[in-house]
Amino acid sequence: MKNIIIVLIISLTQVGITNAQKTVGGVPMPKKQMIGKTILTLNGAGVREKMFMDLYACGLYLKKNTHSATEIIESDEHAAIKIQIISGLITSKKMTDAVEEGFKNATGGKTKDIRKEIDAFKAVFSKEEIEKGDIYDIIYVPERGVIIFKNGKIQPIIEGLAFKKALFGIWLSNKPADKDLKEDLLGNE
């Protein structure tokens, strides 16, 4: 397990430097990410907006690009979401509240079976105050779970495909956090 984590860390730091990039919300998003030996390609990227304010830039990385939100949510394949905070208005409290609402929307309110995992995910945002420029890499690895990095530092791993489906549903479900961002992540820009 430690070897996988070390490879992930090396890959996350090196790939972003060597790849072509796409700029979203003033933030460069690498066109490719290497997760272990798996290469993920930028499926789409956009900006999360609320009340006409840009909050964070977000990129979705997949093994095989698709415009199908259902396919992405249901897939048991490597996938990643990169979030870079671009607003100083985001606080840890606001982010954890938004994440809670996102899980409720993505699951139709059926969060009981993954409550422990949701709380562990929310803790990543509440451990220390979120600052403009913070980068979160949220990576799903089959048979391992969701591995999260904040500014390159690994956070607790959260296991379970059911959790991954709900997590990716925050951005891609029928009731996403931001409809325009969903379309951007699906490559429908």
General description of the model:
Helix 3 crosses helix 5 (161-172). This protein is α+β, with helices and mostly antiparallel strands and 189 residues long. The N and C termini lie far apart (37 Å). The chain has one domain: Chalcone isomerase. Helices cover 37% and strands 30% of the residues. A hairpin with a 2-residue loop joins strand 4 and strand 5.
What is this structure's SSE topology?
Blueprint: H1 2-18, E1 21-24, E2 27-30, E3 32-35, E4 38-50, E5 53-62, H2 69-74, E6 79-85, H3 92-107, H4 115-126, E7 135-141, E8 145-150, E9 153-154, H5 161-172, H6 179-185
Antiparallel strand pairs: 1-2, 3-4, 4-5, 5-6, 6-7, 7-8, 8-9
Helix pairs in contact: 3-4, 3-5
Summarize the structure.
By secondary structure, this protein is an alpha+beta fold. Helices cover 37% and strands 30% of the residues.
What is the CATH architecture assignment?
3-Layer(bba) Sandwich
> What is the strand tally?
9
Estimate what percentage of residues fall within beta strands: 25-35%
Low-pLDDT residue intervals, each spanning 5 or more residues: 13-18
User: What string, H for helix and E for strand, traces the elements in order?
Assistant: HEEEEEHEHHEEEHH
The averaged pLDDT comes out at: 90
CATH class: Alpha Beta
**Total helical elements:** 6
The biggest beta sheet reads: 7 strands, antiparallel
- CA radius of gyration is 15 Å
Give the % helix. Answer: 25-40%
The name of the CATH topology is: Chalcone isomerase
Shape: globular
SS-based class: alpha+beta
Strand order of the largest sheet: 3-4-5-6-7-8-9
Overall domain count: 1
Kindly, what is the distance between the CA atoms of the first and last residues, rounded to a whole number of angstroms?
37 Å
